[in-house]
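FIELD: query
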Amino acid sequence: MDTIAKCPLGENGSHLWECPDGHNRTLTTRLTPGGNPCISALLDLTNGLGPDVVIEAVGLPQTFRAAVEEVTFTGRVVYIGYAKEPIAYETWLFVQKELDILGSRNALQEDFRRVIDMLEDRRFPVDEVVSAMIRIEEGPDFLRAWSENPSRFSKIMIYTD
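FIELD: result
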């Protein structure tokens, strides 16, 4: 199971980080201006690795940077919305951590409901988007084929069961 940390809006200049721990509990810690106590808390929660996914939805330079600093190696950072000013990064983190960094504009609950309905009604063309669904044992062969001919694949889903 992926560990996902969210940084939604807080109050009084602080920002609440939430991180489920895999046992139906959520770590809640605040990122305050001039400090970052959540780094050690998130590292403790994830056995020193950091969350697999960090979702930033505040838009401040410190939370944009913290998302990249907190996420684990080969993790994913999702920025929802825009920063209100230019942000300077330690770009070596992008390369060294091999991060996926994605942006998403704000969406409303009804937008998510439409997508869920589309999936439930089987109106989404899954077969056109997912190139292969394979067992974990088939992973090396498919990754080799993907490496040799990347345009042949759009998404490979690997089952671990």
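FIELD: remark
DSSP finds six helices and eight strands in the chain.
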